[in-house]
Write a structure and sequence with these properties.
alpha+beta, 8-stranded mixed sheet
């Protein structure tokens, strides 16, 4: 998914111990045969199934998962049996009159269920066709624990089985699933009965069903048919995804050493939205919300195009890491998400070199992980999960971004060839099965001929960010002796509590070969590197750590900044920015880095600086210092803006295009008059020309307009929104209605949530957009309208959604309000998200107190 256990006995997988929150062991599904009959108009469905099960030892009870289903029949081996449903545990228990013998048996159910309006179980996406008529697409979303809303199942990743799925669809619609259609039979009432081919062994959360008035377009990649399925009229917008998927399938077949095993790979585009995810890796039937898959040349920016590629790359990587080999339980979710995130960048580096994906990962993904990992809100990559709500909490920045960074560090440490050999061994050994993280380390160790456990365990079983400090360096006989210590970096006291890591580090003098070392503990380590000159720590930023230089060492870095590798320039900016926020050094070191960046430097440097300066400006309260900071930010970025201009040029670098987007967004949000005026002119032209804004700048121009909107301009945007027929464009406009800085306009946006003008997902997006600039108002609205808000988001995300609305608040009372909300409305096991938000807010307040003075000084002419 793109940042959502037991013995199989006769199936040959291992039997884990029973854990809290999991189904009891001893019974496992072997094969499901499910038939679903949706009634899209009534928003209900009925279903029936036969499950072949393997029973390890005699029992009188059969326990599996079910949620929000009305069971009308339960049978075991053809005989009806009584049953009970525990709605809290989401478990269905069958109680037999006599002992069920060990061996193979059949369990049968019939039930009815609800078609949801948000992405959980079987859900509907309502949209307008190009002619203005209404349509409804039905699709499923099962990760993490929502297959149980579709059918009674052993709905845990460790229970792999085969699935035969059948469904009834209206005669003028098409049904689609993980596997190709085996047969279609026209029924007497004009409907069509679809039978799909049987799947390979897989986990329940990967099952998929969809139906609607759709088009499909395909390409062949070897023996695999790759398809795009869309609403009518936009299937050609899937061409870029098809082209990317074809290249990626060849790449992944080679990298993993296991060919993609299904006969087809469909990519399904839904014209809706979710607050939780953008795409889901259902095996052979990957679901995407449209902006993540369809490339609209009239509206998509360069970053949007690159996003499509990386999301497709992420979901396709899951076809191996997650689908072919699946984590045993949600504790090891990072085996899915960390690897898919890493592979999206790995493939981009190899297949799209002009994107500078490796450097971008340093500047964005790695920094994101280091930021979230440096507060009391952090947790180990591998963490224990028990409840449904805790499963939802596991889909976070640590799982995705830190997981990705640690995998990158392991590849950097072992070397790409050895690392790939280990991955191939892992895939070959565990295909169609389930694993834990240590099984991956074992295969990497076998490939490397040495244990990787010491490093791997340090970075996955404990939280936090290592800090490697250079305490001194001196030249001796043509070599530099570098003295290093290792501690912990953090923004708050909890995140600074000492921990010890085996930190694999590369270092060296500029222009000289690198030296590899392992730094551990506070006791100084001396490393000898070739040559004398400017020493760069953590070359290419392959290690997951912050580095702190001595004053002399940092002065040399600034002096020679232009000669450093791009990854080291970006890493230095990131480290100095964070170290100032953590209180390890003053902010003047970061500003010295900025001053050392030439106007014509790599665009990615200026894109990074723009984001960092925006962060600093956002930390100042309203007043003279904030106004001065806005002026200085605009002055600092003006040369870069002049360099890229508003108009894209033919064959320009993708980095220039993405820099332009960032600069317009950052400067426009800070009220730059020229950009604000440009945005007003462009948006005014939309009234007569929907394509008036050039695609290359469409999103930042719209964002600038919405942020700076006057009441009359907001009214114009609302009128544009209500008139828009393109569902994806309309979704974007709805979110923009919540972006205005003006308090009164934010309130008007909130008022729209109590009307019937928008769908539930659109309302959720609007509420989240208001929270971005007005967290106190959004949180207050949610408390006052909690029953309404709970209907807007997926069930699995409700526990964290309301708390997240207040996360950006600077009101000292807000953490207490969030804590009180959680205590009043959430069970103890579901409060982890709220606790993490409160911890992050406390860290932000600490950072603000440390650096606001330095920011204000720079804003008024310092450095």
């Amino acid at each position: 998914m793109k940042l959502t256990l037991a013995a199989a006995l006769l199936l040959g997988t291992a039997t884990p111990a029973f854990a809290v929150g999991q189904l009891p062991s001893g019974i496992a599904p072997v094969a499901y045969d499910i038939t679903i009959r949706p009634d899209a108009k009534a928003m209900t469905f009925s279903g029936e199934e036969t499950i072949s099960i393997a029973v390890a030892k005699p029992t009188r009870t059969v326990v599996l998962n079910a949620a929000d289903l009305k069971i009308s029949r339960a049978m075991v081996d053809g005989a009806a049996v009584p049953f009970t449903i525990d709605t809290t545990k989401q478990q269905l228990t069958l109680t037999l009159p006599t002992m069920l013998a060990a061996g193979q048996h059949r369990v049968q159910f019939a039930w009815t269920g609800t078609i949801n309006t948000s992405a959980a179980g079987l859900f509907a996406i309502d949209y307008s066709n190009q002619d203005g008529s209404s349509s409804r697409l039905l699709v499923t979303q099962f990760e993490a624990p929502d297959a149980r809303r579709f059918a009674p199942m052993w709905d845990e990743p460790g229970y792999k089985a085969t699935f035969k799925l059948s469904t009834v669809a209206p005669g003028d619609q098409t049904a689609f699933s993980n596997m190709p259609v085996a047969s279609v039979t026209k029924q007497g009432d004009g409907t069509k009965l679809y039978h799909f081919a049987e799947t390979p062994k897989m986990s329940s959360y990967l099952l998929f069903l969809g139906m609607g008035d759709v088009e499909r377009k395909t390409v062949m990649a070897g023996k695999t048919e790759i398809g795009v399925i869309t609403r009518r009229g936009v299937v050609d917008q899937g061409d870029y995804a098809l082209e990317s998927a074809k290249r990626l399938l060849t790449y992944y077949n080679d990298y993993f050493g296991q060919p993609y095993p299904l006969p087809k790979l469909d990519m399904i585009a839904g014209p809706g939205s979710s607050q939780f995810f953008g795409a889901m890796e259902n095996w052979g039937a990957v679901f995407y919300f449209e902006p993540e898959l369809l490339y609209d040349k009239k509206r998509a920016t360069q970053s949007g195009k690159q996003r499509i590629y990386t999301v497709v790359a992420h979901e396709m990587a899951h076809q191996w890491f997650g689908d072919l080999v699946t984590m045993n339980w949600w504790d090891d979710l990072w085996l899915n998400e960390g690897f898919a995130s890493w592979m999206e960048n790995k493939s981009s580096i190899d297949l799209n070199p002009d994107w500078f994906a490796g450097a971008t990962a340093v500047a964005q993904d790695r920094e994101g992980a280091l930021q979230v990992d440096a507060t009391a809100a952090t947790h180990p990559i591998i963490r224990h999960v028990e409840t449904v709500d805790q499963i939802g909490e596991a889909f976070d920045g640590i799982t995705y971004a830190k997981g990705q960074a640690v995998i990158g560090m392991m590849e950097s440490t072992l070397g790409p060839d050895v690392f790939r050999d280990g991955i191939r061994r892992y895939m070959a050994k565990y295909k169609y099965g389930n694993t834990t993280t240590d099984q991956l380390w074992a295969e990497l160790s076998a490939a490397a001929g040495r244990s990787v456990a010491d490093v791997a365990h340090d970075f996955t079983l404990q939280p936090g960010v290592p800090l490697v400090t250079m305490t001194g360096a001196r030249c001796v006989a043509g070599k530099t002796q570098v003295r290093l210590t290792q501690g912990r970096f953090g923004y708050d006291a909890t995140a600074k509590q000492p921990l010890d890591w085996h930190v694999p580090l590369t270092l060296g003098v500029v222009g000289q070969p690198v030296t590899r070392a392992v730094v551990r503990g506070a006791k100084p380590t001396t490393v000898s590197v070739g040559g004398c000159g400017t020493v760069v720590l953590n070359r290419d930023k392959g290690s997951y750590a912050r580095v702190l230089y001595s004053q002399a060492g940092h002065d040399a870095i600034v002096r020679d900044f232009g000669t450093l590798a791009l990854t080291d320039q970006l890493g230095t900016l990131g480290d100095d920015f964070a170290l100032a926020k953590g209180g390890n050094q003053k902010l003047d070191r970061y500003f010295a880095d900025v001053a050392a960046v030439a106007p014509d430097a790599n665009p990615l440097l200026w894109q990074t600086i723009a984001g960092q300066l925006a962060d600093l400006e956002g930390r100042l309260p309203k007043g003279a210092a904030k106004d001065a900071m806005r002026v200085r930010v605009r002055a600092t970025l003006a040369p870069a803006m002049q360099r890229v201009g508003f108009t894209a040029t033919k064959d320009e670098s993708p980095l220039v295009a993405t820099l332009r987007e960032t600069l317009i967004a950052v400067l426009g949000h800070r009220g730059d008059p020229a950009i604000a005026d440009k945005a007003r002119g462009y948006v005014a032209a939309l009234a007569t020309n929907p394509d008036a804004i050039p695609a290359a700048i469409r999103q930042p121009i719209l964002g600038t307009y919405a942020t700076n909107a006057t009441p009359a301009e907001w009214d114009a945007l609302l009128k544009l929104t209500l008139a828009e027929k393109n569902p994806v464009v309309k979704n974007g406009y709805v979110r923009l209605l919540g972006a205005a800085e003006d308090d009164a306009l934010a309130q008007r946006a909130l008022d729209l949530l109590t009307t019937d003008r928008f769908t539930a997902p659109q309302k959720a997006g609007l509420l989240k957009a208001v929270a971005g600039g007005h967290p106190d108002m959004a949180f207050g609205f949610a408390l006052a309208h909690l029953p309404l808000v709970n209907t807007l988001v997926e069930t699995s995300t409700r526990a964290g959604f309301v708390a997240s609305l207040g996360a950006g608040s600077d009101d000292p009372a807000m953490p207490g309000k969030i804590t009180a909300f959680a205590a009043a409305n959430l069970p103890p096991a579901a409060r982890g998200g709220a606790k993490a938000i409160v911890a992050s807010m406390a860290a932000r307040q600490m950072v603000n107190a440390r650096i606001r003075g330095d920011i204000a000084a720079w804003a008024t002419g310092g450095q």
